[in-house]
Amino acid sequence: MNEEGKLTNNSISLREVRLNSCSLNLKREKLVESLRPEVALSIDLQTEKLPGFSVFLNVHVKLMNDANETAMDLLVSNEGLFELHGEKSEFFRSFCYINAPALIYPYIRETVFSLTGKAGIQPINLPPFNFVAFGKKHYGEKSH
Predict the structure, then answer these.
(1) Is 0.90 surpassed by the pTM of this model?
(2) How many angstroms separate the CA atoms of 123 and 110, rounded?
(3) Cβ atoms 43, 97 nearer than 8 A
């Protein structure tokens, strides 16, 4: 923001973060003491209606037992609603793959922790995530 409290050109503002979808599937008979988590992230963009746009962060968490069987399958998707002030630029693209997911991720961490606790299993606290490395890799794949 500038000195007068107005948004400057080529800035992005966050309007809202909301839960878009959530799916939890537990196979209690496969829950054992020794479980290993597997976490995968993906990003989807909806930028057709600029200046408003959405970034969807999808997190897929699995708990695998020693027999390599899935004991828990959890998919959480949150949508960040943003507004672009100015022109679409290289900053906009990097924002969509790095900054926006980093803003949305804490909401997903809280959802995963809460849902797993309410499901009667040890709550899962997702670790911090390097969105700079993830975004550069993802952005690099999208630009080819």
Answers:
(1) no
(2) 10
(3) yes
